[in-house]
Write a structure and sequence with these properties.
Layout: H1 2-35, E1 40-44, H2 53-60, H3 63-66, E2 70-74, H4 78-87, E3 92-95, H5 100-104, E4 109-116, E5 120-124, E6 140-143, H6 149-159, E7 170-173, H7 179-184, E8 190-194, H8 197-203, E9 207-211, E10 224-229, H9 230-235, H10 237-256, H11 258-267, H12 276-285, H13 294-314, H14 323-330, E11 336-337, E12 343-344, E13 356-358, E14 364-366
Parallel strand pairs: 1-2, 6-7, 6-8
Antiparallel strand pairs: 3-10, 4-10, 5-8, 5-9, 11-12, 13-14
Helix pairs in contact: 2-10, 6-13, 11-12, 13-14
């Protein structure tokens, strides 16, 4: 009898420990859920560009966390970004109008905001005879990837100067950090670069053919937009709204603290540069919004109309495309919080988001 009693005591204690451990683990899971009610997400933003500052600062200053998001920033290519958006793995992506042809071809995305102005330059290497657009006819242009933002920007520049960006030049992709070296070896006639690489090249003697922050074709217009995965927007609109809100808060913080922003970006190695004065200068030039409202968001749609027409000139969108219809279906305006806490929107296609995406003629198609 004594042996049986002694055996029962350890079993009881063991059950008690297991029960307590389970409760403790459940509590931890609950705490994690309470801290990040909108879950874990990935955003492809680690490309070394200075203009992705809102993504970096939202992470470092806790703006994502404040909106209930556990965000991991990852690296990738234009193609991986598109794949991630289509599957819903990436709820949002930053990028310029290079996404427009993909949307025309059926990529399930929505343009939801504009982020900042110019961050790309088209350059000729030191000592090059190339001095203006016409000199690029049938020349070799280096870009970081085919179909990416620098290529899209350069294509618009070429098309507006009488050069066919599809047949009139040769596009050669190289890793971003190698483009200057390849050009200096005489293997490229011009290169299109993001900042800080572009501005660092200028300081080395590269000639500026087109700076989208100052060139009339691009000045005063968004260089970078924010796109949302159509799948995520339908299934979890609260998450998309939270990401946008975090990025807007981040942009507003950046406008007030450009020097500290530069310091954080360099210390955390988000940019391939150790010059805080240069990064501060670039951040100020991007003209992030100090406040956000329906008007600042609506400007994104206005610029989308403009760049759709520009892409029609390049051949990357058909000349017969109905610009207004295409942009009406691509653009999606999320509600804006007013000072009294209410939300407003003038979005005309919100009711169609339940099962709709983009078609080739700009009309809505079912998924």
């Amino acid at each position: 009898m004594m042996i049986l009693k002694l055996n029962k005591i350890p079993v009881a204690l063991l059950l008690f420990v297991i029960l307590c451990t389970s409760c403790n683990n459940a509590s931890k899971t609950k705490d994690a859920s309470a801290r990040f009610p909108l879950g874990k997400i990935e955003i492809q933003a680690l490309g070394g560009g200075a203009c992705a500052a809102p993504c970096y600062i939202a992470k470092e200053k806790g703006f994502y966390e404040a909106e209930g998001l556990d965000v991991t920033l990852v690296a990738g290519t234009f193609e991986t970004n598109k794949t991630g958006l289509a599957s819903g793995k990436y709820p949002v992506a930053m990028g310029d109008f290079q996404f427009f042809p993909s949307a025309y071809e059926g990529l399930d995305i929505k343009l939801i905001a504009g982020l900042h102005e110019g961050c790309i330059k088209l350059l000729a290497p030191p000592g090059s005879p190339i001095k203006e657009a016409k000199d690029l006819d049938h020349k070799r242009i280096g870009v970081d990837e085919i179909g990416g933002t620098p290529m899209a920007i350069t294509s618009v520049y070429l098309a507006n100067n009488g050069i066919d960006p599809i047949k009139g030049v040769t596009w050669l992709p190289y890793p971003l950090e190698q483009l200057m070296g390849v050009a200096e070896r005489g293997q490229l006639d011009a290169i299109a670069l993001w900042d800080p690489f572009a501005t660092l090249a200028v300081k080395k003697g590269y000639r500026v053919l087109c700076d989208i922050g100052t060139h009339p074709l691009f000045k005063g217009r968004y260089c970078c937009f924010l796109y949302a995965s159509g799948k995520q927007l339908r299934e979890n609109p609260a998450r998309i709204k939270a990401i946008l809100k975090a990025l807007e808060k981040s942009s507003e913080w950046i406008t007030k603290h450009p020097e500290e922003t530069a310091k954080i970006m360099i210390q955390k190695k988000y940019v391939a540069c150790d010059d805080p004065e240069l990064i501060t200068e670039l951040i100020k030039s991007y003209k992030y919004h100090s406040c956000h409202n329906a008007g600042t968001r609506h400007k994104a749609k206005i610029d989308a109309l403009y760049f759709t027409d520009q892409l029609k000139k390049t051949g990357f969108l058909p000349k017969t495309l109905n610009t207004q219809k295409f942009v009406d279906n691509l653009y999606f305006e999320l509600p804006v919080e007013t000072e009294n806490g209410r939300e407003t929107t003038d979005n005309s296609n919100m009711g169609n988001m339940g099962s709709m995406g983009n078609s080739q003629d700009g009309s809505m198609v079912s998924h």
